[in-house]
Amino acid sequence: MTTSPPLGLYLHIPWCLTRCIYCDFNTYVEDETSPKTRYHAALRREILETGAALERPLLDTIFIGGGTPTSLPTENLIELVETVKTAVRLRSDAEVTVEANPGTLSTEYLRDLRQGGINRLSLGVQSFNDDELRFLSRLHDAAAARCAVEQARAAGFDNLSLDLIFNLPQQSVAQWQANLDAAIQLEPDHLSLYSLIVEPGTPLHRQVTGGQIPWPDDDLAADMYAYALDTLEAAGYSHYEISNWAKTNGEAGWQTPHLASAHNLIYWRNQPYLGLGAGAYGTINRHPSTFPISSPYSWRWMNVKRPQTYIERIEAGAGLGAACDEKSLEPIDPKTAMAEHMLLGLRDGHGMAQRIAFTHEDAQLQLNVEPLVRAHHGHFGAGGHGLPLGAMKRLARHTNTGCAAVVANRHPFVVGQQRVVGAELLADVGGVVHRGVEVGVVADAAGQAVFGLGLGHQAGLQRGLPRRTGLQCL
């Protein structure tokens, strides 16, 4: 008996009250001319028509992101969830997340969301330092962030996640330690920690390239990350993915914690997800057309970005992919899926099985891999365990359908008393080498790996995946 993989749904709310200095997401500052009512109607229509085209699939997670979803009235967000329930078969234990910004909330607002079926809240705190919050162009201060956590608990949320950003220009390790310690004191169920990325086209990029502020310091970022690893482990959090920690509840260290983000695990485990709304990505085994067409491949595509264009496309079209940006349409054949699974698996603390099987409608492919990191119950992965230096020079065992390798000894540099060896993960698919995420290994004087660092974007994988990558720890 074959078990279908989990299916997630992402809904994009593009409106924000202001635009943060670092943000390059598909967001728009709302004003009286913003077509919010028409956008809401279009998004509901896309939900209903997608559900009908896919014959009411079974759905495991909903994630409403943006933008600032909580800039909308609660009845709008609840109506979206109810529309999803009409369009698909939502599991009774489905994870339903809404992103929220402190300063846009009240206990009454959050209680309405909780009673309306939203069971997980992701708060974009980013910092507990008021100077840093002003630099980031956030509307809230540290007191408002603490208040939002109290409001969420009073409203009945028992699955609460906080986002923090580290390695800000001129941020000291002590300032980061104070931020992380402040977050831990609030006892969130989940923490997402992201190193600041200077994205082209943002006000931050213009200031950095113009010399007004310095580039973030990668060496300091490594120190900040190392502090997070030790501190969060001591506080009872499990490091289950490069940038994510969840409170443990008796799980073994190699097990995915119960409070891990079920929706984001779908991305990281290369499983199917729907992306609806302006600029949203999705990857499913259907070609976007007015009615599903059987295909041997999965397909990844993005909706058009501009809200007005999105509205017009939805109002004029019907069925799956009515707002698809045709230029973004990309077939994911089995060999590509294997390479992406390999690279994504290195983000996952649970790791990958030593023998990986991919089954598609037109092929069944298998990939045998040597553990490149410490093995746990027949799996290997990244998490905070690090890459043994000797293993980095070994190729993974492979069939003629693909392989993966880590090539070491590139760009060594020093972090404190520790040595860092740069490296690059390569995926060889059908004889073509694709450069993947660059990694580095922090080693002590005896050559024992402490942890790995990703030193850049995941080339070729950035499309259709969460954008918050950049300098990440493996």
Keywords:
single chain; 474 residues; alpha/beta; TIM Barrel; 2 domains; five-stranded antiparallel beta sheet; 29% strand; disordered C terminus
In short:
This protein is α/β, with parallel strands linked by helices and 474 residues long.
Give the termini separation: 35 Å
The chain-level mean pLDDT equals 75
Q: Strand share of the residues? A: 25-35%
* Helix/strand/pairing category: alpha/beta
Low-confidence stretches: 290-294, 353-474
Per CATH, what is the topology of the largest domain?
TIM Barrel
The major sheet is characterized as: 9 strands, mixed
CATH A-level architecture of the largest domain: Alpha-Beta Barrel
Number of helices: 11
So, the CATH homologous superfamily of the largest domain?
Aldolase class I
Number of strands: 24
Characterize the overall form.
globular
Radius of gyration: 22 Å
Describe the structure.
The protein has 474 residues and is α/β, with parallel strands linked by helices. It has two domains: 8-268, Aldolase class I (TIM Barrel); 353-473, no CATH class. The chain contains eleven helices and 24 strands. The strands form six sheets. It has a nine-stranded mixed β-sheet, with helices on both faces. The protein has a five-stranded antiparallel β-sheet with strand order 20-21-22-23-24. It has a three-stranded antiparallel β-sheet with strand order 12-13-14. A hairpin with a 2-residue loop joins strand 21 and strand 22. Helix 1 (36-53) packs parallel to helix 2 and helix 6 (173-185) runs parallel beside helix 8. The longest helix is centred in the N-terminal third of the chain and has 18 residues, at 36-53. The protein starts with 7 loop residues before the first strand and ends with a strand. Residues 290-294 and 353-474 have low confidence and may be disordered.
